[in-house]
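Quick one, tokens below:
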């Protein structure tokens, strides 16, 4: 048996010699459509969003990851992530071993997950999981991804919600002739230097008029420069930058190592500090965009591009850029900024699947900060699906299965949300914090989830890794939501020693 053929054990073995007949044996019954999902570490978006959605769609899932044990723990699987053929066959027949999930059922465990919510919220039933195989794979290597998928049998869809794996998933989908994102657009949005070059090239004189639908933005690109891989930061000393400016990793996420610098000396020093943590990393230096920070959430099938919603984001004070809270803006999202952002997304080739775009409002201009060709994270996607009242995660997966989106998603427009992130303000051990809880009063639902356990000790990261917990406040009245959040925060303490 080929050890790379992970489903071989589930197929009936038939040999004319063993069966004493030369007659052809009947072909095995086709199984459910199979989704190949690429992931790094486990995330709420996958655990609570995409895997349950795959189960509701009747999909089997092969999860390719470089962290199989972490996923096995996150889903409550006791056995090693790459289980033996006998166990998979037993599970397919509904004869799972004690403590092991049956195929198509929610995984079970002997105890709570390490990152499971505590308190009342922990009593909620786990989400239904699909038939799931966890397969070790170097998912950052697109050639290895393609090889692993090919060994597993022809896929029906290839998908990832990881910022880091969009290009790999797009290349794999293209290799197998499946619906997916344009790999060039995936690379263009991930690589922040290439993003700036692409938008600058999409000016009024661009040959493709679809790239220059709105000259208001294309004639006013964001200033940027690149420190290439291995290039000495000292070469930036003479850079004619518009100080203050922002330094960030070219392929970074979650505000990791994103910092505001005031002059040339600080620019060189900060780049050297980042390089000490990320040896040889390529960096981008960009114009500092002052103004209200907003997001635009979109979903497309290559034909229709829907605007799902927009958030207003409040950041921590400079020099770091940490998202402290988000408010869902009333629908429809405000103009003319929405149309300008959509024009820039078209210029980048973005229009398939889900996308989370961040931009700054400067008067009547929308100036892009970054494009994340995935769903918005930090539980905002889960809340958005709830408020819109639509099967958002199913819609996202359906596009990758080649199904067109409806012309009208049927989304509600009266929902409001405030996402409040409780952050550590110093390094140390978390000595006390409130447990998980869900309450509802005066039309406001408060769902608090701890993100760090009592007794855990951490350095200060200046990123979302400093979050101690997240409070999801939803309703239809923003004033009541804000009042409920203020009351909750005043009534609880988070102590770091």
């Amino acid at each position: 048996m080929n050890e790379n053929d992970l489903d071989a054990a589930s197929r009936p073995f038939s040999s004319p010699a063993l069966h004493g007949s030369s007659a052809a044996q009947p072909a095995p019954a086709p199984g459910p459509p199979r989704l190949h999902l690429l992931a790094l570490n486990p995330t709420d978006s996958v655990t609570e969003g995409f895997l349950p959605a795959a189960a509701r769609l009747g999909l089997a899932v092969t999860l390719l990851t470089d962290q199989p044990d972490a996923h096995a723990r996150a889903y409550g699987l006791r056995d090693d992530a790459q289980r033996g053929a006998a166990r998979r066959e037993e599970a397919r027949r509904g004869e799972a071993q004690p403590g092991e999930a049956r195929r198509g059922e929610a995984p079970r465990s002997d105890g709570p997950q390490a990152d499971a919510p505590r308190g009342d919220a922990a009593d909620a039933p786990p989400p239904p999981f699909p038939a799931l195989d966890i397969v070790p794979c170097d998912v950052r290597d697109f050639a290895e991804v393609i090889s692993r998928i090919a060994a597993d049998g022809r896929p029906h869809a290839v998908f990832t919600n990881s910022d880091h794996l969009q290009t790999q998933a797009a290349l794999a989908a293209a290799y197998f002739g499946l619906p997916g994102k344009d790999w060039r657009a995936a690379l263009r949005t991930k690589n922040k230097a290439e993003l700036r070059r692409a938008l600058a090239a999409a000016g009024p004189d661009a040959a493709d008029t679809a790239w220059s639908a709105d000259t208001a933005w294309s004639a006013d690109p964001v200033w940027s420069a690149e420190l290439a891989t291995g290039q000495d930061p000292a070469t930036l000393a003479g850079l004619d930058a518009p100080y203050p400016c922002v330094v960030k990793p070219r392929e970074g996420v979650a505000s990791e190592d994103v910092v505001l610098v005031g002059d040339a000396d600080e620019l060189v020093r900060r780049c050297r500090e980042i390089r000490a943590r990320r040896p040889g990393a390529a960096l981008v230096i960009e114009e500092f965009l002052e103004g209200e920070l907003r997001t635009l959430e979109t979903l497309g099938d290559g034909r229709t591009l829907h605007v799902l919603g927009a958030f207003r984001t409040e950041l921590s004070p400079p020099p770091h850029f940490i998202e402290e809270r988000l408010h869902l803006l009333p629908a429809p999202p405000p103009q003319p900024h929405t149309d300008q952002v959509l024009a820039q997304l078209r210029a980048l080739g973005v229009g398939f699947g889900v996308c989370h775009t961040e931009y700054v409002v400067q008067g009547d201009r929308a100036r892009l900060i970054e494009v994340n060709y995935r769903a918005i994270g930090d539980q905002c996607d889960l809340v958005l699906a709830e408020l819109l009242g639509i099967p958002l995660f199913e819609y996202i997966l359906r596009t990758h299965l080649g199904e067109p989106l409806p012309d009208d998603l049927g989304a509600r427009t009266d929902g409001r949300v405030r996402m409040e992130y409780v952050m550590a303000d110093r390094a140390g051990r978390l000595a006390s914090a409130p447990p998980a809880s869900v309450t509802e009063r005066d039309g406001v639902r408060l769902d608090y989830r701890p993100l760090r356990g009592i007794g855990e000790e951490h350095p200060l990261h200046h990123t979302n890794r400093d979050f101690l917990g997240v409070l999801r406040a939803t309703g239809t009245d923003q004033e009541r939501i804000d009042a409920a959040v203020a009351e909750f925060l005043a009534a609880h303490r988070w102590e770091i020693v």
